Amino acid sequence: MYNICMMIKKLLLIFFIFIINLFNVASAEETVKINSINFDNSDNIVFLAASTKAMYINVKSMKLSNPDRIAFDIENSVLTRPNSSWTFKNSSIKEIKLSQFTTNPNVVRMVLTYNKSFNVNKLKLYRIDDNLVFVYNKKLFTQNNLHSVYNDEKSKENYYEYTLFSEEKKAAQPAANSAAETVRSPEAIEIQKAFNSKGELVKKTNTTLKSSDTKELKLKSSFTVNSIDVKRGNALIRGIGAIAIESPFVVAEPDRLVFDMPNTYVNPEIRNKEYVLSENETIKIGQFEPTKARVVVTTPNAEKYRPIYSYDSQSIFLAHDDRLLGLKLYDRTSAIYNYSAKKIDDTKDILHFTFTEPIIHSIKKFDNKVEINLYNSSGFNHDAYKKNLDSEVLAKLRTEQLPGSNTGIKIIIPVKKTTTLDYQESFDNKQLKLTIMTPKEVEIKKPKPAIITRNPNVKTIVIDAGHGGTDVGATREGIYEKDITLDIAKRLETILKKKGFNVLMVRSNDVYVSLQDRVSFTEDNHGDLFVSIHVNSSVTPEGVGLETHYYTPQSYDFAQIVHKEFACAINSKDRGLFKSKFYVINHTTCPSILVETGFISNPEERKELLTTQRKQKTAEAIAKGILKYLGKD
Length: 633
Ligand SMILES: [Zn+2]
Known about the structure:
single chain; 11 helices; binds zinc ion; alpha+beta; Immunoglobulin-like; 7-stranded mixed β-sheet
């Protein structure tokens, strides 16, 4: 007896494989262009993205044996990517092949090779918008949710089911192919569910799945980024699956806004490609970890950006506050028909909305507040509700009109810096649930620096190893700036301690330290000198050499002396001394410098930067400069 749980478990082992192109603008002729294939990792879905103006996509299917396989011939179609095949070890589908079968007439053939546990009768083919979706062993679905365009177009409802195996025959069976076959089953949410990462709310919907299955499905969601499009200086990030982002953070030099997208795979063709947002702003997305994407926006105004979730959570519009004006974000407004705010315990409060239509929204956490923007929904009467509210946190909630909008509202909830959020949305984007978690106030004893008696003759030198933790700094070929800077910083620490200085390390291990904290550490400890260690990078591999940066007038002599020692000692190009308004050397009061110890983007220098010799030499040269500056050489 075939067991669906086992099936799902097996399929969970199929790791997400995929190659995709941008969704091209449909060509004038009615040729179907197959530009991507995607296997969802949580379920048995094969997704072929096509672009076409064709009214019908004709698909013929045939069963073949030895080995058992099914072939699908997509008529009048062109494969815009190379022929490929994928094999699966722990699945009833053993192999999938996609190829240009013939060129006259144009036929793209997809072949699924399967073992005996595979029941071909359970295979279904759908057309959703211009895409073909092969679904195994799943019920139908109602919502046109799989593929989305943010919102410049009206959402379409082109969703057809092909009847593939109405009767089993050995010979080729033409697929049903017309819009007349359109099916909209009432029970059809499974596919979206399979893609849904924030599944808690899903359970409350009318589902035919057993709860154990739901659990499996919700944990294995994924998102595939297909494209980035710039729209008036905002970035639209689109893909397939359920999008999720981790709390954005800001790093400096240059100033960048960074956010990570868990369970996300990035189309190799757009990885690390820079898109221009404005004269001095760019965006790119990289595969930071095998299942995590990282979006980096280089901008002097990181605080201006916020990610806006679309109708279907399959795209994020990274919008600049000043460039939203006049952009159409929605075509349907939504009322709030249910609203609840409650205190769970002293540390946890929950706010839960249900909307009449899918909601376009963003959430942004500041040190002292959370802002939820509902772009296509107007206000609600919190004041009436507030009277019976036992939640101190949510009692302070207030709303205001979104600037420049008649329908949108901004919900503001004052919170603490230590507050964390869990934000969920339902698969149909009609429910939002915000869990606000505020840790209990413990008396925070600020760790006072352990300098009790300060010998006025001993100088305190603060060493700042650039970056750290989630802020990896510049990176090439899996090598992180943060590791090189820490290594050099530790060597410098050892040398300076031997010389009798009071040496303070901003970080001694791989942790994230904000720029503000780097400065306040230096100020609180009355640092006499501040040295920040960095590794440079450039877009071209040619960039090479050494730089020293200073900003304040009191830093000039220090910078000059250290740079001279440093540039003499290291066998690389002397790029010189720079006056640069970097945060850490601009906000410290003591003489402060930032040393760029070489280019990670230059293959040869990168290799050298990894050697003990180069790192030791660098530390020694900086130490020598410090001694010289202090008149102690
Ligand atoms: Zn750096």
